[in-house]
Amino acid sequence: MTHTVLITGASGALGRKLTSGLGGAGYTLRLTDIVSFPDALPPGAVFTQADLLDAAAIARLAEGCRTILHFGGVSVDRPFEEVLGPNIVGLRNIYEAARLAGARVMFASSNHAIGFHERTEPLDADCAHQPDSFYGLSKAYGELMGGLYWNKHGVESVHVRIGSCFPEPAEARMLSTWLSYADLVRLAVRCIEAPWTGNCVVWGASANSRSFWRNDARAALGWVPQDTADTFVDRVAGVVSGNPVQERFQGGAYCAAGYSRTERD
Ligand code: NAI
Ligand code: 15L
Fold it and tell me: Which is it for the CA torsion 233, 234, 238, 240, positive or negative?
């Protein structure tokens, strides 16, 4: 419980949930984001405003930390030019900082790294990347970056392919992809506490019976999700888009955005 934990993207939706959950559990938190932190800080937490592109600032923030929860950066489908800095260069800065500090990284990857797999295809964590956007491609790059730093430098990573982490599922697809905030915090605790993680992938989804995903590293980490989207079936099962591309692939709307392919088997 004495580990110092660095959270990037602390001012974002998930960063704020991690901050309150881990702060409440007694962790010493170092928080950072490019925008100010909107909430009261938990006891002992320190917030530093910094850009992920500032390699020296990120390295200073990571000094003395055992774990980096990397949740900062572009978090939705955006043009390549906007993704490039935070999610590609910024990620390199995170991994260099982790190497220098001897820290483990929990990387907020995304289902959009594998979004162009069909919804009918159950996926194991070692499936091929099939990014559905430049954003998803940046998450695949992040997972590969973790592999490079593991093989070359022994930096440990847990790449969490988060599905849809919101207060509640909002559409039928999220009956498969939803991750509750409480399960996210429980997973973060295991990423901090597990004695060894190596370089592994975990599907970031609650215990949803309609899940697209199986066979990941959760047992080795000791993570067992407690929540399920199943209780929302009556409310959202009928909420579908009517777009055939969106409904066919796991990445949903990200697959359909800008889609121009005219033939597909
Ligand atoms: P968010 O957009 O609310 O938070 C991201 C934070 O990163 C923001 O506070 C933003 O200010 C910060 N940021 C952006 N550029 C930065 C820069 N150059 N330097 C420093 N900080 C910067 O997103 P959310 O929902 O909290 O997601 C957090 C992470 O989880 C993201 O990496 C996202 O890709 C990932 N994720 C989230 C999912 C979800 O359902 N919420 C699903 C899959 C992945
Ligand atoms: C993500 O990667 C995004 O960060 C989030 O805003 C949602 O779009 C989520 O995926 C999803 O697929 O529902």
Answer: negative
